Amino acid sequence: MNAQQVEANVTQPDSPVRVDYVATCQLPTQWGVFDMHGFEEVGGREHVVLTLGEVTDGAPLTRIHSECLTGDALFSLRCDCGFQLAAALEAIAAEGRGVLVYLRQEGRGIGLINKIRAYKLQDGGADTVEANERLGFPADMRDFRIAREMLAHLGVTAVRIMTNNPRKIDTLEQAGIEVAERVALQVGRNAYNDHYLDTKKAKLGHLFGL
């Protein structure tokens, strides 16, 4: 899949977003038993939201997490994604309620195979933004409006958002979802992802205090 094909599958900023609710089940985890809500986007991509406890009252602790197979499932040290996912679920469980939105937007929207290609360029010295650009992609192709639609379906109108990315805050606020608080999620820095995290701060505006 090339850059043009990927871009064709990404919702454009001025186009309507539609995500249909499908079903809910229980999901037991090491942190507790969550409810898992399944959604399907027009175009076929599937997304899920995990909720714990009552989330329609006040501003629940919330994480919007984009899929990262290498970090979330394969324990890669090249990024902080898997560490953030675990820390977010642990924090929600400790609070007794909260929301985790899991978006299927692998590789900041470029897909798994192109992410592997980008990693190859990073092996040769490119940073995470340069690698995307050399492959013909923007630095970040994700659309966080999808999360807005799923939160609205679940009756969540205000959140305390766990993120280092101000774009997520902007998207939710522009959609009418109140961001009552930003909760920093700074975990997993190591020798393999040091440069990656520095690049996210310098070029993507992430709010690290590391």
Automatic annotation (TrEMBL):
Keyword Endoplasmic reticulum among UniProt keywords: no
Cofactor stoichiometry and binding remark: Binds 1 zinc ion per subunit.
Domain called GTP cyclohydrolase II: residue spans: 23-183
Gene Ontology terms: biological process: riboflavin biosynthetic process
Binding sites annotated in the UniProt record for Zn(2+): C68, C79, C81
Cofactor(s) needed: Zn(2+)
E.C. number: 3.5.4.25
Keywords noted in UniProt: GTP-binding, Hydrolase, Metal-binding, Nucleotide-binding, Riboflavin biosynthesis, Zinc
Catalytic activity: GTP + 4 H2O = 2,5-diamino-6-hydroxy-4-(5-phosphoribosylamino)-pyrimidine + formate + 2 phosphate + 3 H(+)
Binding, GTP: R63, I64, H65, S66, E67, Q84, E106, G107, R108, T128, T163, K168
Tagged with keyword Hydrolase: yes
Catalytic residue list: D140, R142
CDD domains referenced in this protein's UniProt entry, alphabetically: GTP_cyclohydro2 (cd00641)
Pathway, per record: Cofactor biosynthesis; riboflavin biosynthesis; 5-amino-6-(D-ribitylamino)uracil from GTP: step 1/4
Alphabetized GO MF terms: 3,4-dihydroxy-2-butanone-4-phosphate synthase activity; GTP binding; GTP cyclohydrolase II activity; zinc ion binding
InterPro entries: GTP_cyclohydro_II, RibA, RibA-like_sf
First-tier enzyme category under EC: hydrolase
Pfam families registered for this protein in UniProt: GTP_cyclohydro2
GO cellular component: cytosol
Function: Catalyzes the conversion of GTP to 2,5-diamino-6-ribosylamino-4(3H)-pyrimidinone 5'-phosphate (DARP), formate and pyrophosphate.
NCBIfam families: PRK00393.1, ribA
Family designation: Belongs to the GTP cyclohydrolase II family.
HAMAP family the UniProt entry points to: RibA
PANTHER family reported in the protein's UniProt record: 3,4-DIHYDROXY-2-BUTANONE 4-PHOSPHATE SYNTHASE, GTP CYCLOHYDROLASE II-RELATED
Protein name, UniProt field: GTP cyclohydrolase-2
